[in-house]
Design a protein that fits this description.
With 210 residues, the protein is an alpha+beta fold. The chain is elongated and about 105 Å long.
């Protein structure tokens, strides 16, 4: 079998062993939103990532609940999180975001839920190919998969930082504009008040001479 076919077979097997969901959701004020994923086998790895892209102080409450209503993890006022845990039980897992602490700010949250089975895909054997060669190719593919996952997570991190920094710049621009408007109004008010005081003094002086 051609090495390219071996590579394609392994990649296809890896894809079939992993299921992932990546979404962006807008959480309204005082809203609690939950998302569900079903794990069909025990000891599956679940990777869970989220990041608040905009809104308020870029924070949200989160929780992960297992099939038996057992709280696996939770946190309050977190900006982002990146977790990997083992699903001990089969069944439905619930991932919730809570924005009930906010009364006016809606928030955009990027999140990804990936379920990966523990078992590794096996490369089909080829006549004349030693197990060492097959194992080396398999390890190279898994190492490449890990590097791609790292690159993807870094991209998400930099995107989150870019959104937050851009929001800070926009907030600073609004504050500078508002301060400039207030400063201009104060200068106009002070100038008008000075004119009024000067006119008042001159009118009082004229009455004294008369």
């Amino acid at each position: 079998m051609h090495p390219l076919i071996l590579l394609s077979t392994l990649v296809a097997s890896l894809v079939s062993l992993t299921s992932a969901t990546a979404l962006t959701y807008k959480i309204a004020p005082n809203e609690k939103a939950c998302f569900y994923t079903f794990v069909s086998s025990k000891n599956a790895k679940i990777a869970y990532y989220f990041a608040v892209q905009s809104g308020g102080s870029f924070d949200v409450d989160y929780s992960v609940v297992g099939p038996n209503e057992k709280i696996i993890m939770e946190g309050e006022r977190e900006r982002q999180g990146d977790f990997v845990f083992t699903a001990v039980d089969e069944g439905e897992y619930r991932f919730c975001f809570n924005n009930e602490m906010s009364t006016w700010a809606e928030k955009f949250v990027d999140f990804e839920i990936a379920v990966e089975n523990e078992s590794r895909a096996q490369l089909p054997s080829k006549q004349g190919t030693s197990p060492e060669q097959t194992s080396a190719l398999e390890e190279s593919i898994f190492k490449l998969s890990g590097q791609l996952s790292t690159i993807t997570r870094n991209q998400k991190y930099f995107r989150t930082r870019e959104n937050r920094n851009f929001s800070t710049v926009r907030s600073t621009e609004r504050r500078i504009f508002n301060f400039s408007v207030v400063e201009g109004l104060m200068m106009v008010t002070m100038a008008g008040l000075q004119v009024f005081i000067v006119r008042f003094f001159f009118q009082g002086a004229r009455k004294g001479y008369v």
